[in-house]
Amino acid sequence: MALKIYLGDLTYNTIVVSTESLPINIGYIASYCIKQFGQDVDITLFKYIHELEKAIIDDPPDILGLSNYCWCQNVSQEMFKIFTEKNPKGLRVWGGPNFPLDVPTQKEFFEKFKYFDIYVPTDGEVGFSNIVKHVLDTNLEMIKYEVTQKPIEGCIVRNSEGRLLYSLADTRIKNLDEIPSPYMTGLLDKFFDDKLIPMLQTNRGCPFTCSFCTDGREAVNIVNKFSKERIKNEIEYISTHVKKNVHSMFISDLNFGMIPGDLDTCQEIKKVQDKYNYPHKLLTTTGKNNKEKIIESIKSLAGSLSLSMSVQSMDEQVLKNIRRENISKDVMLELAPTIKENNMNTTAEVILGLPGETYDSHLETIRKLISAKLDDVITYTCFLLPGSEMATPMEKNKWKFKTKFRMLPMDFAKLSSGKNICEIEEVIVGSKDLNFDDYVQLRLIGFTLWMTNKGVLYSALIKFLRQREIDVSDLFFKMVERKDDAPQIIQDVYEKFKRATVDELFDSPEEILKKIQEKKEYEKLVNEEAGFNVIRYHHTMILSECMDEWTEYVLKIAHDLLEENNKLTNEVQTQFKEIGNYCRGKCHNPLGKDRMETNPKFVFNYDIDRWLEEKRDVLQLTEFRVSNPKEIIFSLTNEQFKIIEDNIEVFGDTVVGYTKALKMVPEQMFWRRNLARDNKSESFFIGSDYAE
Q1: How many CA within 13 A on the CB side of residue 593?
Q2: Residue 96 region by backbone torsions, left for phi larger than 0, else alpha for psi between -120 and 50, else beta
Q3: How does DSSP assign 636-687, residue by residue?
Q4: What strands lie across the sheet with 307-312, from one edge to the other?
Q5: Average pLDDT, integer, range 596-608
Q6: CA neighbours within 13 Å on the CB side: how many for 503?
Q7: Segment 610-637, tens digit of pLDDT
Q8: Are 301 and 282 in contact (CB under 8 A)?
């Protein structure tokens, strides 16, 4: 009889699917095991919590193997507990990057989490197959006792006496094609449902040593790759199996575009885009160096993939503190004009709370990125990943981190036992260089950037301010500083955001777990009153309820800046009015149920589209005055409507569902296009921004 194995890479889906990717990780482990042991193993894969819970209760396996990431740690332990009750002799295997680096903290980890027997800390295929080999040579009636009495290569084993047995030789597979494709073998077919997003992996490893990242470890610094033919076949397979309402694809590579062969991958993706109209959006992390190569790799995918400038900070000392000085931020910023010329969107990622970062240095980082004309500057709160150097006791003490705990967005569920469970992360809200009030204020600025510095959204206004030598970062900073002057509905959003930022923080994980056992508190999660991603939630709230008011507030602060800098001549006043109307048209009602029927129109004396396309920044709007005023109607295309609605169908017609859906939608799909009409001739034409 074959050895029965369950493998799970779990996601919560109480409200929406929280971790949306197909479980390609356990697919690799399963396909490698099947290659090694054939019919001697019977492997079933799981993604959804309640499906695995039911399977364990109804028909427990011999081995339960679960992935360990920050988004599934606690629920994995609950699954192991249920498994232990149903099959006390069964073997419990855990693996993944959410595991401490230093040995003393690893021992604490084993003490804290009692319900597992073996940990596989790095790439799991070889380590897990070594476990299976030992099991197949063992009496299944004594499986747990016999297998855990000796070290297993690539694993940390807890023996029957509680002692840890280490055998951590390098078990990484260098030629990744040795792992059969879980796509081409059909192992992942059942996960092509209308909820999960396909994931592609072309390589593993990261050459960088960033201290905040679990992939900064020496053990994974060498990059190993899959073959071009393998990647090509998987892209084709995914594109022919994905559901019609799924428009996105994840690429799990850590430095996409930077590694040799990535250009070929982009070309293959472009082929399937042309052939199948999929994917519309690629979600990945682009490389940190060799930006010229990255630009060459992804410019054919412009619109479906943004180039990520993962600077994290522009402060030299902070970069040294996090061992990131080998990444050239200056080269990244110098390439911004080239990126623009290729019509590519750029995203800069900044981390709030890094070692040595101060309030002023964080603001200076934002100023520099805004000055570099990046389309989107995203601020993340720094959280401590157990597998990162920054999470070690030595680093935490060195920087005097002040940390709190918060629930991961939408990661909660009620198990069949009636117990409520959720996932929790430890975040840095202060240090010896940053106090808590500054943390909250910087979060407000980060939210304002998220809402306002978004590609084409206010591009006309931002260019207009720059041409009048206004520091555009002041627009965002002043919006927070003067928020009491905003329309009442915007003041309310700011206040709700601030309160949610504070209220999501707790002193310990135990406090959170205890709180959600209360019926009233759990109902708050179910009713979407708590437990959401604070920035994305309030972003969606504005898009759905008060985008017009947000635009008016942006324009008010911009007008104040022009006035305070003595730039408001009569001509500037006239042009600013038209710039304001352009922004009002672009941003109007992006998510309302009636958005296809509410199409604003304004008369323009300047060709703002052509002015925006002009690469020479010295040319002022004055140069683009038209002889005949033109009426422009701002509308959404049917394709824009469909892509957003399809994603809402996947994730649900709630505020939280919208937050997940919008994550999967290309930025340009939110905003209205320009349908223009010559007032004099009444002839219609499509403006350049309308063209697909």
Answers
A1: 2
A2: left
A3: --HHHHHHHHHHHHHH-SSHHHHHHHHHTS-GGGSSPEEEEEETTT--EEE-
A4: 307-312, 346-352, 376-381
A5: 95
A6: 15
A7: 999 887 778 899 999 999 999 999 999 9
A8: yes
